[in-house]
Structures are given as C-alpha cells and as structure tokens.
Write a structure and sequence with these properties.
about 220 residues, mainly beta, Glucose Permease (Domain IIA), nine-stranded antiparallel beta sheet, 3 helices, 13 strands
Length: about 220
C-alpha cells in the first residue's frame, strides 16, 4: 500500500507494502510472464547481457536504498531536455529530445546498446553523494550514451550522460536500478509484475523517482492505472 500526500507541490511518498510478482521471472529490466506475453509489454521476450560491460561491484544491496525525495545535492536530470511526461511504471516514462544529465556525482556501472532486455540502450550509474549515495539510477530505451561514456567513469552532477533520440517510438525511461544486471529496482524487489504492466499500476520505486524529479523542478510522471 502506498501513502501519497502533497506539500508545496512536492510529493512525499511512504512505502508501506509492495505487491510481489505473481509469476514469471526477471529478464533485463522487465518481468517475464510464464505462460503468455502481456500485449504491449516492453522488453518482454528479449535476452539480456550480450553487450553488457562488466559492472562495478555493488556497494549496497537492492533492497536497502532509501529512495529519498530530498533534493539536496542533486540536480534535475531532465534540465537539458524538453520532455513530455508519460506513465509511471518501473520508473518514469518520457518522450522528447535533448540530453539526460547525472542526478548527482556518480560512477558509471553499465553501458549497453543492444540485447539489453529493454527497447534500446541501458545506462546505469551509482550515486556517490546525497541522501541516496550507493543507490543506482538507470536511463533506458530511446537514448544514446554520451560520447566516450564508459564503465568506471566518474560523472559530476549535471554532466550529460545520454542523448534522447528525437521522435523515438519507445520514448525513454528513467528510474532506480537494482545494480545487478540490467534490472530495475522495482523488478528486483517484487514491485513489478505482468499485472502491473497490463493495468498500468505504478511501482513504489517509480513514484519515488517521479517525486524526486518534481522536487528538483522537473516534470513528474503520470499515474495512469
């Protein structure tokens, strides 16, 4: 169950109970149903990891991130982009153009552009500062890595790490990552399932990331379920 309140235009979210995945396994960033694919589900049926560069070992387990909405030390990752917010799912979906920047100072842990399990690129970095130091952030689907971006690279807050592909049919997705493979935090912790995908039920992790973007002056995603 999620408790959502609003104060001064900034969402404060309290994660009480999340719903575990009902069936299937995790592949790439998405949940795989055991019997039939969910119509329109992104990432289903794709293999993950073929082009994945070895990630930096995780310093924090997937279930231990605070997912704070405190903006101190962070910058709006959409500040150099013009975007139209879409639904909140595992993370937050957007359509648009421009560049995606690092939320805070971090270390690039994954850069993959093919067979990612997502509809396109998967970029991940681990935050080194702020309330969520040690947690992972992903930018996925209709994006291209910044020139020369590589695993092990340190990026500063506000530094471009990806370019949005204009008019991409998939749009982009940003959110909290698990820091293991190319899996979202929501998928790893059982907040995302084929039922959530089909019924447009937002994950707690997606709601938190949307609230953080809003607290930094960016456009939050939309709850469509």
């Amino acid at each position: 169950m999620l408790l959502i309140t609003s104060a001064a235009g900034i969402l404060t979210l309290a994660l009480l109970v999340t719903t575990p995945a009902r069936s299937g396994g995790v592949q790439g960033g998405k949940i795989m149903p055991t019997a039939a694919r969910i119509s329109g589900s992104r990432g289903v049926g794709r293999s993950a990891g073929a082009s994945r560069v070895a990630a930096v070992p995780a310093r924090r387990r997937a279930g231990s991130c605070a997912m704070a909405t405190n903006a101190a030390g962070y910058v709006n990752p959409l500040g150099l982009a013009i975007v139209n917010p879409k639904r909140i799912d595992q993370g937050v979906d957007y359509a648009g153009s421009g560049k995606l920047t690092a939320l805070g100072r971090g270390t690039i842990t994954n850069v993959a552009t093919a067979t990612t399990g997502w509809h396109g690129t998967y970029i991940e970095y681990q935050l080194l500062t702020g309330r969520d130091a040690g947690c992972y952030v992903y930018y996925a689907e209709g994006v291209l890595p910044a020139t020369g971006l590589h695993v092990g690279q340190t990026v500063r807050a506000g530094e471009p790490v990806a370019t949005i592909i204009p008019n991409s049919s998939t749009g982009i997705e940003v959110g909290w990552a698990a820091g293991q493979g190319m899996i979202s935090y929501a998928a790893k912790t059982g907040q995302w399932s084929p039922t959530h995908e089909q019924d447009n039920i937002p994950s707690a992790a997606g709601l938190y990331f949307s609230a953080l973007i809003a607290s930094l002056g960016g456009p939050p995603g939309r709850v469509e379920g």
